Each structure stands twice: as C-alpha cells, then as structure tokens.
Amino acid sequence: MALKGILGFEHGIVQAPLGPDISGPELVAAVANAGGIGLLRCPDWECPDYVREMIRKTKTLTDKPFGIGVVLAFPHELNVKTILEEKVAVLQLYWGECSKELVDDAHCAGVKVVPQAVDVGVDAIIVQGHEAGGHVSGKDGLFSLLPRVVDLVGECDIPVIAAGGIVDARGYVAALSLGAQGVCLGTRFVATHESYAHPIYKRKLIEYEKTEYTDIFGRARWPSAPQRVLETPFFDDWRSLPSHENEVDQPVIGRSTIHGVEKEIRRFAGTVPNMTTTGDLESMAMYAGQSVGLIKEILPAGEVVKSLVEEAQLLILKKFNNVA
Questions:
Q1: How do residues 44-100 score in pLDDT, each as one tens digit?
Q2: Are the beta carbons of 264 and 187 closer than 8 angstroms?
Q3: Which of 3, 99, 186, 313 has the most CB within a 10 Å radius?
Q4: Percent of the chain, pLDDT > 70?
Q5: How far apart are CA 164 and CA 131, in angstroms?
C-alpha cells in the first residue's frame, strides 16, 4: 500500500464537483495547485459560453490540469462539446448513462473520462458509498462496496476512486487498504476558504455532527434523487414531509445568483446557499456526508490536500514499522 498519483496528477485526491456552483474556479485552482484533481461543476442547463468562460477563468488561476463534473440527468450536450473543445484534463460524469460515443469523443479530444460506470472504456471509476453528502443513489456503505468493485474491475487496469464519508487521512488510508487508488472528497472541500459556499453553510458544517438521508428537497426538479443533509432544526421540523408535497407550491425563501443566473429559492428546493444567497438560509438544504463531525475548522483547500498526503504517509509508515 502506497500513495501515488492517478490520471497523470501528482496526488490521488479528487475534489468532488460541488453543486450547484460551490466548486468554482478559485477552489478548483487551489486544489490543482496543490497537486490534487479539482473539478468544476457544470451548470444544470445548456450555457456553453458560460462554461467556456468558467474553464478559461480557472486556467488563469492555475497552470495545472483540472476537470469538470457534468450531471447527465440534465441538458448537457452543448456544454460537453465546449468542455471537450477547451480540453480540460478530466470529464467526470454521473447520474446518467455514460455512452461509449461520449467516451470516444472525449478521448479524441485528449480528455480522460471518470464516471460511475466501467463498461465503456473509461479511464477511472468513482465508487460512492451511502455515507456521501448531497445526492446519493446507492444504499451500500463505502467500505463494503469498495472491495467488491475493486475485484470486479481488477482486470480492467483502471484506477478505482473511493467516495463517501472520507474527510481525513484515516479514511484515505482505509480506502487504499481496500484497493482504491484515490479518494474523492466533497464535504471537506465545501468547508474551505476557497469554496463558494455561503459562510453560514460552512459554519454549520463545523457546528453540526449528524446527517440524515432524505428526499424532501428538490422532488420536482430532480425526482428520485435522494440526498444526505445536515440535521438542522429546519430539517428536523420537516423530515416527515408528505410524499405528495414538493417545492413547486412553496413560498420563496431566498434568492441566489447561480452560474451568473438570478434564481428564486423556494422552500424545499434543495439549493444550497452560495456566497450570493440572501433570505432565510436556515431553511435551505445543506448537504453533508456522514463524517462531517470530523471537520473541526475551515481550511485553505491546498492545506487540505497537503495534510491528507502527509498524514496518510505517516500512518502508512507507522503501520509498516509496527508490522516490521
């Protein structure tokens, strides 16, 4: 067991594409500059000019490679075309079918593809456990699922990246011991100086320790996409929301500018508060993974990457010495 880079990057640490726009150019560049794999989050609507501008802005902040995540459940064809034209290093795909044609197009553009499926010639695969924050479809815990997937793809010779509830070096080393070559962190990178999350959201990640798997947020916009959220007082009050109710007829509780577009936020909309958000932030969704209680402070993103690598090396060395 050893630390090594993946996909041509210095470190096997991936910063998840945090929606709707929490992982912007500043966060992604900070992760890239530290040797990790930073992923922008593509808008959930077609806006290729904006996507191009976002990618190019990131390139002004780093000369290191980076990537972008696209949710296939939403319109994306024009956005993906622009992404391939801009030749980002990694295209991460989820919540939808990753076609062989799309993978072939990406490879022709020199872009590596990292989805949550493995049968179409992809370059790596992310295995997400039920512990993850945000939208999660799987019901299996990461450390029961991970070795099964590692065994399944063993002959494919592609990196397996573990995601879900990993926030520190202990989780990193545990994932490596089960066969992963890298780890993908979301919540830990929301709680960084460079993330575009609202300060109140960041503070809640430090204050709260419990999460819940639910479906009360965004039922109309994104059906059958349950999520893991912080157990805030608002959530505790509404956790038993009747299944026939959704955000459509709810009152407007705030406003945000998301990827350059002004948007109203209705109660139960599932939109996390970003730096522009105004209104009743306490009543908005706040996604977080199960290990949020291990996050004790908001740090620079580069320091998160650095500490993961250095502390994991120490843990591995200590284990080796104990065995020897």
A1: 999 999 999 999 999 999 999 999 999 999 999 999 999 999 999 999 999 988 889
A2: no
A3: 186
A4: 98
A5: 5
Please give the backbone phi and psi of residue 317, each rounded to the nearest 5 degrees, phi first: -65, -45
Question: For residue 185, which of 159, 215, 165 has the smallest C-alpha distance?
Answer: 165
Average pLDDT, the chain: 95
Q: Which residues, 6 or more positions from 8, have their beta carbon under 8 angstroms from its beta carbon? A: 65, 89, 112
Tell me the pTM: 0.96
The Cα–Cα gap between 269 and 218 comes to: 5
Query: What angle separates helix 25-33 from helix 301-323, to the nearest 10 degrees?
Result: 40
pLDDT at 324 over 60: no
What is the three-state SS of the chain?
Answer: CCCCCCCCCCCCEEECCCCCCCCCHHHHHHHHHCCCEEEEECCCCCCHHHHHHHHHHHHHHCCCCCEEEEECCCCCHHHHHHHHHHCCCEEEEECCCCCHHHHHHHHHCCCEEECCCCCCCCCCEEEECCCCCEECCCCCCHHHHHHHHHHHCHHHCCCEEEECCCCCHHHHHHHHHCCCCEEEECHHHHCECCCCECHHHHHHHHHCCCEEEECCCCCCCCCCCCEEEECCHHHHHHCCCCCCCCCCCCCEEEEEEECCEEEEEECCCCCCCECCCEECHHHCCCECCHHHHHCCCCECHHHHHHHHHHHHHHHHHHHHHHHC
Cα-to-chain-centroid distance, residue 226: 15
